Amino acid sequence: MEIKIYYQDTDCGGVVYYANYLVYFERARTEYLLKKGVDIRRLADEGIFFLVRRAEIEYKSPARYGETLVVKTEPREISRASIDLKYTVTEKSKKYLIVAGSTLLACVGRDMKPRRLPDGILKLKAD
Question: pLDDT, tens digit, for every residue of 54-112?
């Protein structure tokens, strides 16, 4: 997924504000799952939700206003009730690493108790 950096994404030094990478991870995760046939909105309507249990970010290089970033999302581990995704963020034209990170998502029902992952996500193991 490509993300263009706008002024609103940066701090006073013109560098992407560190917490925005979590937003970029969220967007990339949603797009990744949609491309794999998993519609988060439909699942929410059915009472299936995903909670972030852990987020990790390692900052390698600053991204700046006007650049375009490429966020790559891949499953790291999938269990019966959680999915661990890893992300790499690179600068599009120069292709250098900006950020590496991961999120661990727990699958829960309306009662916020753990539940089994939907089959569409369990099938991601085979990809």
Answer: 999 999 999 999 999 999 999 999 999 999 999 999 999 988 999 999 999 999 999 99
AA identity, residue 42 = R
Supply the CATH number for residue 68's domain: 3.10.129.10
Tokens of 44: 């929410």
Residue 23 vs residues 27, 103, 127: alpha-carbon distances, Å = 6, 12, 25
Contacts 24+ apart (CB under 8 A), 88-93: 89/21, 89/24, 89/63, 91/61, 91/63, 91/67, 92/2, 92/67, 92/68, 93/67, 93/68
- Does this model's pTM top 0.85? yes
How far from chain centre, in Å, is Cα 58? 14
**9 in catalytic set:** no
Domain count, the chain: 1
Find the catalytic residue in 9, 11, 45, 127: 11
